[in-house]
Amino acid sequence: MPTTNMPLAPMTPDAAISAFSYLRAVEADDVEAAREFASGEPRMPELLVDVVERIVVPVTALPGPEAGEPCADTFALEALGRVFVTSLRTWAQAGPDTAEDIARSVIDFAAQFLTENHEDVADTLRQLEAVGVGQALDARRAVAVRTAAARRALPRTGLSIGVRAIGAGAPHQAHATGGGLLYHAPP
User: Fold this and answer.
1) Nearest residue to 113 via CA among 127, 124, 102
2) Reduced DSSP (H G I as helix, E B as strand, rest coil) percent helix, strand, coil of the chain, to 5
3) Is 68 left (phi over 0), alpha (psi -120 to 50) or beta?
């Protein structure tokens, strides 16, 4: 049984944008756009469940210690959230044809639990997308920083210094001279 305090694997920004674009198209009853988004991403049901988990878990999680002792209702809500996410995850395994029904479940959850009187579901989805894409970008930046730090921590050898010196991966050509040395040739 998964716990609500386990960290979620980060979504990529593209995955978050794709999932929320699909959700907004389904919510707007834009069948053509929804079909286009779904056909462009065969993993759409799984992406939607990733989004659901990021929305449902914080909303249904047990309150922290500062909120006092949880009551029976808070335990029931937390359990209901886990059941909802698990059910959608199982449903997503049936294949790409489940995307619309999963999207409608996400939209209904947003309407019932997250939408205030003065806003509609489309506003709520836009706000959730902004948060989701922001988290994905933050996760990507954190990975890049950790990767750069790990690279700096590696011992420097003649080969690694030479590779950096010639700019491996740069958009230019490297040529061998008669002595076997590499140099940059302008593009």
Assistant:
1) 124
2) 70, 5, 30
3) left
- CA dist 101 and 105 (Å) reads 6
| Digit-coded pLDDT (tens) for 109-165 | 888 888 877 678 888 888 888 888 888 788 777 766 666 666 665 554 444 444 444
- Tokens 């359990």 label which residue? 79
Q: Cα–Cα distances in Å, from 3 out to 13, 85, 93?
A: 25, 12, 21
DSSP-assigned letters across all residues of 31-65? HHHHHHHHHH-TTHHHHHHHHHHHHHHHHHSPPPG
Residue-wise pLDDT for 8-17, tens only, equals: 667 888 988 9
Q: Is the dihedral of CA 96, 97, 98, 102 positive or negative?
A: positive
Pairing type for strands 182-185 and 173-176 reads antiparallel
Rounded to an integer, what distance in angstroms lies between the CA atom of residue 16 and that of residue 29? 20
- Three-class SS of 77-88: HHHHHHHHHHHH
Judge whether 174 and 183 are in contact, CB under 8 Å: yes
Tell me if 37 sits within 8 A of 20, measured CB to CB.
Answer: no
User: Predicted confidence band at 46 (pLDDT cuts at 50, 70, 90)?
Assistant: very high
